[in-house]
Write a structure and sequence with these properties.
With 317 residues, the protein is of the alpha/beta class. It has 11 helices and 10 strands. The strands form 2 sheets. The chain has an 8-stranded parallel barrel with strand order 1-2-5-6-7-8-9-10, surrounded by 7 helices. Strands 3-4 form a two-stranded antiparallel sheet. It starts with a helix and ends with a helix.
């Protein structure tokens, strides 16, 4: 079932989840262990992140260096197939521009279509370590709005390979990302919303936001989007803080603010266990307030750790 149809047919807000695939070298049980604790809530869909290949330079015996391209996690198609084999839920894979040509993206989309996948989240992806800014692959996309357009064209049966005649039409529902505190590359929030509208105008069916810790920021963002003419559902994304390290890491990695009221609470924490409990309480309060404000769903970033998310869901839904 398509995510947009799940949203439209749901009589009340629901929880969905995002999972990071295990690192290469893990077996499938590691993947299942991240999902099984959440399965009791019958999530209507679960997102699976995609990670581009990484580049490393290895020193040769003669002192020169060789460029090596490494995949650090299993491929998206394999991850999706493994989940579908075990669980009865809609799987929503992320498809990214980073590290992929348009033809490689088309092949991946067709593979996913063969598996019966109906939902895609279209993302640009991050630059690789060492790059100051995102550099697309030759014949790749610079922006996720271009990726959305490619998926829509494939939905209409338009292939990049012009030799394909009367090719099947895919039928992907397309989700895209948004940033309540703006994307770090955008000069201002108005420009960032303009880029989001371009993704929606190109065919995106719904929006999932980056994590945030201040509901007022999200609600203001939604109001700005509506005024800009963005009418598709906007699903807030949340992640509970769970360690002292995350208090420092999350703002840097995701370019977001932790509100002062929350920082005052965290300042009284003595151990990671204290932070863990404070993170749960803050996320529960966020979730309840967002549901009261009328959001269609809440998307939780699990990062492969499910226990705190389970507690939040039980206290919220």
């Amino acid at each position: 079932m398509k995510v947009i149809d799940i949203i439209k047919s749901s009589s009340k807000p629901f929880a969905s989840f995002e999972l990071v695939p295990p690192l290469k070298g893990s077996d499938v049980s590691r993947l299942y262990a991240g999902i099984e604790p959440l399965n009791e809530f019958n999530p209507p869909f679960i997102n699976i992140t995609c990670h581009r290949d990484e580049v490393e330079y290895h020193q040769n015996q003669d002192g020169t260096y060789s460029k090596v391209v490494l995949a650090k996690r299993p491929g998206t198609v394999a991850i999706v197939a493994a989940i579908m084999k075990r669980f009865k839920m809609e799987v929503v894979p992320h498809v990214i521009c980073g590290g992929a040509s348009r033809h490689r993206i088309e092949s991946e989309l067709l593979d996913l279509n063969f598996l019966g996948i109906e939902n895609i989240v279209a993302l640009r992806g991050d630059s690789i370590p060492g790059q100051k800014y995102f550099i697309p692959e030759p014949d790749g996309h610079s922006h996720s709005s271009e990726l959305v357009k490619q998926i829509v064209r494939l939905n209409h049966g338009n292939y990049l390979d012009f030799s394909v005649k009367n090719g099947i039409k895919t039928d992907f529902c397309i989700g895209v990302a948004a940033y309540p505190e703006k994307h770090y590359e955008a000069p201002n929030i108005e420009t960032d919303i303009m880029h989001l509208k371009e993704k929606v105008d190109n065919g995106a069916d719904y929006v999932i936001t980056q994590m945030f810790f201040d509901n007022a920021v999200f609600l203001d963002f939604v109001e700005r989007c509506r005024k800009a003419g963005i009418e598709v559902p906007i699903i807030p994304g949340l992640k509970p803080v769970s360690t002292f390290k995350q208090i420092e890491m999350l703002p840097r990695a995701f370019h977001l603010d932790i509100p002062q009221d929350f920082m005052k609470i965290l300042a009284h924490c003595k151990t990671d266990a204290d932070v863990y409990e404070a993170g749960i309480e803050w996320c529960v309060n966020q979730s309840r307030e967002l549901i009261s404000s009328g959001v269609p769903a809440i998307h939780y970033y699990t990062m492969g750790k499910a226990d705190n998310i389970r507690q939040i869901i039980k206290k919220t839904f």
